[in-house]
Structures are given as structure tokens and as C-alpha cells.
Design brief:
- With 219 residues, the chain is an alpha/beta fold.
- The chain has a single domain (5-218), classed as Aldolase class I (TIM Barrel, Alpha-Beta Barrel).
- Helix content is 33%, strand content 19%.
- Bound molecules: D-xylitol-5-phosphate (DX5) and zinc ion (ZN).
- The site of zinc ion has 6 residues, from β2.
- One of its GO terms (cellular component) is cytoplasm.
- InterPro entries: Aldolase_TIM, Ribul_P_3_epim, Ribul_P_3_epim-like, RibuloseP-bd_barrel.
Amino acid sequence: MSQTILAPSILAADFANLKKDIEMVNNSEADWFHLDVMDGVFVPNISFGMPVIEAISRHATKPLDVHLMIVQPERYIKDFALLGTNILTVHYEASTHLHRTLQAIKAEGMQAGVALNPHTNISVLKDTIQDIDLICLMSVNPGFGGQSFIENTYEKVKELKQLISEKGASTKIEIDGGVTNKNAKQLVEAGADVLVAGSYVFGSKNPTDTIAGLAKLTQ
Ligand code: DX5
Ligand code: ZN
């Protein structure tokens, strides 16, 4: 088992003390910052956008994994590249010309990710998987932190792992939503490479220890 990438979701951080939470992640065993951008159209919630990410980017010492929950994400690829995004993930359900969007993300020097809603079958990515650096399987319906993990995700991870190996691709599998110490190990055993955790980390008494606990469980 290779080392699992841990990506705390800043959506659950204290926005009035963002610098403190960024430094906590910088000094923890976490690997990436997961940043959720919501537009109130693709999902029924609005989170934060460019100015906040710009501020985070000035303090973060680890890669920025930006998850766009917005319609027509292709409109903002250049902007997110300029903000220092390392991995830019768009939703399959929000992308009419996904192949073109993936090429445009890579042309800006970022890794290209695609997120799938819980109801979307992984077979829709069969023809693009070679071009995708990361597939984010939503294990809750996107839009809010703190929701319960959907159990069917384990099955989906296994199926996706199989598809990746059949196609000889090197795509990473990321799991987003409801990740805790109860499901982390089983997700990694099923084939997950990246775990996003928001409320489990920031809602805990000692987020640094919580991250260390997840790291220990999944190495
Ligand atoms: C949900 C977001 C998630 C969210 C995860 O729409 O994409 O990244 O922040 O939060 P938890 O870990 O609390 O489910
Ligand atoms: Zn997310």
C-alpha cells in the first residue's frame, strides 16, 4: 500500500482565523489543502472564491487541490492557475466538453481532476481516463460539509480501480465527503489514494492529532 494523501477540507476551517488553520495544516502530516468552490447554482450553497484562495495560497506550503462545484468551470481555468492551484477538479456533470476542459487545465500546468456525483456511474469516464490525473468520487451529495458517508462508495472505488488498471492509467482516486477514522482504512484498502476530510478534522479537539491519527490508520 503506498502512502495515502490526506487533504483537509478548508470548508470546515474557522474562516475568522484562517491563517491559524492554514498553519496547522502546514505543520501537520496532511499532504494537500482541499478547497471547495461552490457557486449556488451547480450546488445549493455558496462557499468562497478567488480572493480567499489567493489569501490561502500566500500562506500554504502544500499543494492546493481545488474542487470546483460550479457550472461551466472552463470559464475560470486560467484564473485558478494564476492563484497557484496545483490540482484543478471539475465536475463531470457540469462539463459539456470535458475532454477539451481537461486539456485546457493541463495546458495551464495544473493536474486535471474530474469529480463524480454519487449518482454518476464511473463508466462515463472510460474514454477520458487516460487524460485524468485524479478522479474525485463524491461520497456525499456535494454542497455541504458534515454529511454522512454513502456506503456504496466502497464498491465504486473498487470498480474504478479496476477500470484504471485495465486502461493502464495512472489516475489517482480521491474520496470526498464524510471521511472519518471509521471508513478511512477500508477506503484505502478498496483502492483510494487521496482522502478529503473536513468536519472530522476541524471539528475535532486537536486537528493536528486527528490528521496524525488518519495518517497512521492509512499508511
Ligand atoms: C462537499 C465538499 C467536501 C466537504 C467535505 O461538497 O466537496 O469537500 O468539505 O466535508 P466533510 O468531510 O465534512 O464531509
Ligand atoms: Zn470537496
